[in-house]
């Protein structure tokens, strides 16, 4: 027990027992053994002095904004600590309780909440939090409920009777600025200022919330401060009602006016939470256990508050002591550390989350900018909020004329690829595929083909090949994982609309796949956009609107022309402007039909490192390894 505490009615401070040494230990051991055997404590210990302490918030003239602290006998507090040590050996408290538990503190609870908020912010998903406030929590605990919870927790009956004796015939007086009131009995609630009360309250909360914790596991408690978290507003509202019912049926009361709701990474129209038909106050920031948490997941306001608190403490220290003019620099430095240690560095674990996140964001931004600059000036902007570069590598894309190596870049929401101009420095012909529209199909190895699979989208479909089976498996797993996360993030189902056809290579057929006419200088090869077949000019004079590819008419073969026309007639969607049109005899090939130009240009990418092989990225936020020679491989992210 610490020294310097206010004494109780017996006016015996704990310093007396500390000064007496071994004699005090022998006397107290004999006294406590007699109290334990008789289950009766001295009558002087039952008296206390109640001092109202202002909570530093609300109206000063309102009694509800004061907390009553009891000044009790220090000798009784020593006895309570002995009983508490015995109870902790037999009672197990749930992991969600952080208050007054060994090896747990407020920083652990704040750190856990911030980590949860950071993860949902990085995943661009909403996290709904309700901060529950119990009205007069310690003062409302029914005594009969306390005995019941102690027995249910496995406390021996003898210690239940010992605790009952502490609360029997307890009397107190209220001390204020004008004097003291008459003595009166206290028949409800726990003793404020008692050494045993925090653990007794933890036992009560553990038993009252045993059933509701199983239905809402995302809950953290620090004594009477409860945080309920969920992925949806409806679920957190349902869990809040369960907690209210579980607590109020056993004598506790939830304060609807002080309970607050906060949505992390909120989207438009997320709504509010109701408690018994009334809206819970919605806030953008909340002071949780002395630390300000923000709905955007940042720590800026908390850092500023810590800095200001450190400066205020330093100013107060200067007023109390006059500094000498000549001081050594080392002493000054020690003074500064002393001023700031308890205030500026409070909750430094929470700041580490922000520092790690900021470091990752900067490194990720540099990687994305390097990819973006490699496609300049014709490439689109790739840097976007929440976008993360998962991995990159070189794969073989099976084009219409011949296979060509392409640079592929996998992000958490898109897949980007382009032609390699200077390996590891810059690329051309940027193409962007949205992962929510993407579908993969595995291809079995055969004669002349190995490690291949198909990427399908409504606008473009093609085959790609990897150098090894392991590389192929890694790419497919990463793409599928990012695609599933993106669909979950957007709340969309899997793609069901038609995909673009895969073009058959020119070398696969020497004759038209419709009329069997041979190809020559006059009879050129063309591709049907609907079926992907290689057809001659005569068989591909028609155009049709394929809405999943383009709003403009595209080239189709004769057979597809008939089937599309019949389908439009059946669906009643046939219109004049969407009808089949004849194409001119000779037409310039589109960019897709031409082989990509690899002419060198003058722009230089900021990414000057040599061409990397495929790098497997684990999209978890951690510091990348600094020993890699190529693009950092954050397997420890």
UniProtKB/TrEMBL annotation:
Domain FYVE-type stretches: 506-565
Protein's GO biological process: endosome organization; endosome to lysosome transport
GO CC term (a single one): early endosome
PROSITE patterns on file: PH_DOMAIN (PS50003), RT_POL (PS50878), ZF_FYVE (PS50178)
Compositionally biased tracts (Basic residues): 303-334
Record's keyword terms, sorted: Metal-binding, Zinc, Zinc-finger
Catalytic class of the enzyme: hydrolase
PH domain segment(s): 388-484
Molecular function GO labels: phosphatidylinositol binding; RNA-DNA hybrid ribonuclease activity; zinc ion binding
InterPro entries recorded: DNA/RNA_pol_sf (IPR043502), PH-like_dom_sf (IPR011993), PH_domain (IPR001849), PH_domain-containing_F (IPR051765), Rev_trsase/Diguanyl_cyclase (IPR043128), RT_dom (IPR000477), Znf_FYVE (IPR000306), Znf_FYVE-rel (IPR017455)
Top-rank taxon: Eukaryota
Family: Belongs to the beta type-B retroviral polymerase family. HERV class-II K(HML-2) pol subfamily.
Entry protein name: ribonuclease H
Source organism: Hemibagrus guttatus
């Amino acid at each position: 027990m610490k020294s310097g505490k206010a004494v109780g009615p017996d006016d015996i401070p704990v310093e007396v027992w500390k000064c007496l040494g071994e004699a005090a230990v022998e006397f107290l051991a004999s006294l406590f053994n007699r109290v334990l055997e008789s289950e009766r404590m001295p009558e002087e210990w039952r008296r206390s002095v109640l001092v109202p302490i202002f909570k530093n918030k609300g109206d000063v003239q309102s009694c509800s904004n004061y907390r009553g602290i009891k000044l009790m006998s220090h000798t009784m507090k020593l006895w309570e600590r002995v009983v508490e040590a015995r109870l902790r050996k037999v009672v197990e408290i749930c992991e969600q309780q952080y208050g007054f538990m060994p090896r747990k503190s407020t920083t652990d609870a704040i750190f856990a909440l911030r980590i949860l908020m950071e993860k949902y912010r990085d995943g661009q998903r909403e996290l709904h939090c309700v901060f529950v406030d119990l009205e007069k929590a310690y003062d409302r605990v029914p005594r009969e409920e306390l005995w019941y919870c102690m027995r249910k927790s496995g406390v021996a009956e003898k210690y239940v009777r010992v605790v009952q004796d502490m609360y029997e015939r307890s009397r107190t007086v209220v001390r204020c600025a004008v004097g003291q009131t008459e003595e009166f009995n206290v028949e409800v609630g726990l003793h404020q200022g008692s050494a045993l009360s925090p653990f007794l309250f933890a036992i009560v909360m553990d038993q009252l919330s045993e059933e509701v914790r199983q239905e809402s596991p995302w809950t953290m408690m620090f004594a009477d401060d409860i945080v309920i978290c969920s992925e949806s507003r409806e679920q957190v509202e349902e869990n809040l009602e369960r907690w209210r019912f579980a607590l109020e049926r056993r004598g506790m009361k939830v304060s609807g006016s002080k309970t607050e709701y906060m949505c992390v990474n909120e989207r438009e129209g997320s709504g509010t939470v109701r408690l018994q038909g009334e809206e819970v106050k919605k806030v953008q920031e909340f002071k949780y256990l002395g630390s300000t948490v923000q709905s955007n997941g940042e720590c800026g306001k908390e850092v500023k508050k810590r800095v200001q608190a450190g400066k205020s403490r330093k100013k107060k220290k200067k007023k109390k002591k006059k500094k000498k003019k000549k001081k050594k620099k080392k002493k000054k430095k020690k003074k500064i550390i002393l001023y700031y240690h308890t205030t500026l560095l409070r909750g430094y674990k929470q700041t580490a989350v922000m520092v790690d996140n900021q470091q990752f964001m900067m490194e990720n931004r540099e990687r994305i900018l390097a990819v973006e600059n490699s496609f300049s000036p014709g490439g689109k902007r790739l840097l976007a909020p929440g976008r993360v570069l998962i991995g990159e590598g070189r794969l073989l894309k099976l084009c219409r004329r011949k296979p060509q190596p392409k640079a592929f870049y996998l992000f958490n929401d898109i897949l980007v690829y382009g032609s390699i101009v200077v390996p590891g420095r810059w690329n051309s012909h940027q193409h962007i595929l949205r992962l929510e529209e993407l579908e993969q199909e595995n291809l079995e190895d055969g004669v002349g083909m190995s490690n291949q699979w198909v990427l399908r989208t409504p606008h473009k479909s093609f085959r790609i090949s990897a150098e090894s089976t392991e590389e192929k498996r890694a790419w497919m797993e990463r793409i599928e994982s990012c695609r599933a996360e993106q669909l979950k993030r957007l709340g969309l189902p899997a793609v069901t609309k038609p995909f673009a056809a895969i073009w058959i290579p020119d070398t696969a057929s020497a004759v038209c796949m419709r009329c069997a006419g041979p190809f020559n200088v006059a009879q050129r090869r063309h591709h049907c956009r609907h079926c992907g077949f290689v057809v001659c000019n005569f068989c591909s004079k028609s155009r049709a609107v394929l809405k999943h590819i383009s709003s403009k008419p595209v080239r189709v073969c004769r057979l597809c022309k008939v089937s599309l026309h019949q389908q439009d007639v059946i669906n009643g969607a046939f219109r004049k402007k969407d009808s089949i049109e004849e194409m001119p005899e000779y037409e310039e090939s589109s960019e897709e039909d031409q082989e990509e130009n690899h002419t060198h240009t003058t722009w230089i990418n900021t990414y000057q490192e040599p061409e990397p092989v495929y790098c497997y990225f684990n999209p978890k936020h951690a510091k990348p390894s600094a020993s890699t020679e190529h693009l950092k491989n954050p397997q420890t992210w």
